[in-house]
């Protein structure tokens, strides 16, 4: 019996793995700080609640610092003992860049929200939910099996539902949270059905093993495998706000607290596109003839619908600036889809252009939201007309917003925006998708209208007198007509901008300028193999 016992003991010991704590440190730190904030919120008196925001900032900085040892090489953990190449968690160049983007975006969101958590939002709940969502978002790009991928996606998404509806008593916020929740739950259900079909056809959840087994699926399981691939893509199309699954975006962004809208526009989009890249390029290359044409059509449809709706928003200057940014983000999602679709046709790794474009988009879009948050402090309706004369009132903020809009448009001095669009355009041309390159070129020209129109508003002379806004004032906000008299109209008092908001604007503007001066820092990823 002794040899059998020894053999059994040896077999049991082989199942015990050492955990690479350095590799999993970034999402782990975010999750640990979330628990610290949750517990601290129970004991801190109301006057000390702002301390939670500083704990959150420190935790996100620590999570970003934990990425430094991961900047070179590839590290994996939670691997199969029978196949060490099949791992559940891998930090390679792709995961490193997306984790930096996600945690950096969460850090800038925290800066935007510092004052709001003191005045409007429940501090403890907000910071716990933000850190929890950031932990899931940082986990996702390193996930290398479908189970971990789905769990990470839901950990990132579930707190976001609550963040959107965190403005208690606000009808728009509650409606936005409900729409976001219903659309996301539907997407998750469809994606889980697709994942179950893929597992039924391959018998594994690890992405590298799925890629191998899908290349040789038995004939009787071919339909199951193809259906699973399609349903999984549909689920991620919701997450990326690709048309026609984009309907939740405008109302969600407008109803959510402004820092949350900024977070969803960058971090939420990074999560969706990371998952989409992993399942298509890593897991489903054998079915490139299925997802390649589908993503190409989705890219063309998404950029066209997003830009057309944004033009309509810009044409009516009384429309919300946040809603314009929401439609702009839909159009930008179309550009981000192009290199992923091109990867199916070229046979090599073209998704680096998506990563490079995502870096540019994250910086400048967060910067635009930061300036919008600054304007909203004095003009809560945040309409396009509220930006008229911003240069006369706050010249640095106006110049920063103009720079961000020109980057999104792809015009100098926003060199990084221009080069990022060229990288995406080149990916389509090199893959033989000439028709998609033409659609993209047309959409880039169309987008110039609303980006330049908004930019021009910033430098127009301020209006001497404004119409009363009683009909459009949101609940709880004082009307411009209240207290009006026959005497001279009082000039609005220039409010002091909170220091964290100034830091957010300055930081995004600085990074944007550096990337425009040294575009190779981001465009480097467009020419390297990420997997």
Overview of this structure, please?
The two termini are 48 Å apart. The chain has 20 helices and 2 strands. Helix 6 packs antiparallel against helix 11. It is globular, with a radius of gyration of 24 Å. Strands 1-2 form a two-stranded antiparallel sheet. With 531 residues, it is an all-alpha fold.
Would you tell me the overall average pLDDT?
A: 87
What structural class do helix, strand and pairing data support? mainly alpha
Number of β-strand runs: 2
Q: In whole angstroms, how far apart are the ends?
A: 48 Å
Radius of gyration based on Cα positions: 24 Å
Into which percentage range does the β-strand content fall?
A: under 5%
- How would you describe the shape? globular
Strand order of the largest sheet: 1-2
Estimated helix fraction: 55-70%
Described by strand count, sense and barrel closure, the largest sheet is: 2 strands, antiparallel
Q: Total helix count?
A: 20
Could you spell the SSE succession in H and E letters? HHHEEHHHHHHHHHHHHHHHHH
Low-pLDDT ranges: 1-14, 465-493
Protein name: NADH-quinone oxidoreductase subunit N
Membrane topology: Multi-pass membrane protein
Enzyme class: translocase
Transmembrane segments: 21-44, 51-70, 94-114, 126-143, 149-166, 178-199, 228-249, 261-284, 290-312, 324-345, 351-375, 396-420, 432-452, 501-522
């Amino acid at each position: 019996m002794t040899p059998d016992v020894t053999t059994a003991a040896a077999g049991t010991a082989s199942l015990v793995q050492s955990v690479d704590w350095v590799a999993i440190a970034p999402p782990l730190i975010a999750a640990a700080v979330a628990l610290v904030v949750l517990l601290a919120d129970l004991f801190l008196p109301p006057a000390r609640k702002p301390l939670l925001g500083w704990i959150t900032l420190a935790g996100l900085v620590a999570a970003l610092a934990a990425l430094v040892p991961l900047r070179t090489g590839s590290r994996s953990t939670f691997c199969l003992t029978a196949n060490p190449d099949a791992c559940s968690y891998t930090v390679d160049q792709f995961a490193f860049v997306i984790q930096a983007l996600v945690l950096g975006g969460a850090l800038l969101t925290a800066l935007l929200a510092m004052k709001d958590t003191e005045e409007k939002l429940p501090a403890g709940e907000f910071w716990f939910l933000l850190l929890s969502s950031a932990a899931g978002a940082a986990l996702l790009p390193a996930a290398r099996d479908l189970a971990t991928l789905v769990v990470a996606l839901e950990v990132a998404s579930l707190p976001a539902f609550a963040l959107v509806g965190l403005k208690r008593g606000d009808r728009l916020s509650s409606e936005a949270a409900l729409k976001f929740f219903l659309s996301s739950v539907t997407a998750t259900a469809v994606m889980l059905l697709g994942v179950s079909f893929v597992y039924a056809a391959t018998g594994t959840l690890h992405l590298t093993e799925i890629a191998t087994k899908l290349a040789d699926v038995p004939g009787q399981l071919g339909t199951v495998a193809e259906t699973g691939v399609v349903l999984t893509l549909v689920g991620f199309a919701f997450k990326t706000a690709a048309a026609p699954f984009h309907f939740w975006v405008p109302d969600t962004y407008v109803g959510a607290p402004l820092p949350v809208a900024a977070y969803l526009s960058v971090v939420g989009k990074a999560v969706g596109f990371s998952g989409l890249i992993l399942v298509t390029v890593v897991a489903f290359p054998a079915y490139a003839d299925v997802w390649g044409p589908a993503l190409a059509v989705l890219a063309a449809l998404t950029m066209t619908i997003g830009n057309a709706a944004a033009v309509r928003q810009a044409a009516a200057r009384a429309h919300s600036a946040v809603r314009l940014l929401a439609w702009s983000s839909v159009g930008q999602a179309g550009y981000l889809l192009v290199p992923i679709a091109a990867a199916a046709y070229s046979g090599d790794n073209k998704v680096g252009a998506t990563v490079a474009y995502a870096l540019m988009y994250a910086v400048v879009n967060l910067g635009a939201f930061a300036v919008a948050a600054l304007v909203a402090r004095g003009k809560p309706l945040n309409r396009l007309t509220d930006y008229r004369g911003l240069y006369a009132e706050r010249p640095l903020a106006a110049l920063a917003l103009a720079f961000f809009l020109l980057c999104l448009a792809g015009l100098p001095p926003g060199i990084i925006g221009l080069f990022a669009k060229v990288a995406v355009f080149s990916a389509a041309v090199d893959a033989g998708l000439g028709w998609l390159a033409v659609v993209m070129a047309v959409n880039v020209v169309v987008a110039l209208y609303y980006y330049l129109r908004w930019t021009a508003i910033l430098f127009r002379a301020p209006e001497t007198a404004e119409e009363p806004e009683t009909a459009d004032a949101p609940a709880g906000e004082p009307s411009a007509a209240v207290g009006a008299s026959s005497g001279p109209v009082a000039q609005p008092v220039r409010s002091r901008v909170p220091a964290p908001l100034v830091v957010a604007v300055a930081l995004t503007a600085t990074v944007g300028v550096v990337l425009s001066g040294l575009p190779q820092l981001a465009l480097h990823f467009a020419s390297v193999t990420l997997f």
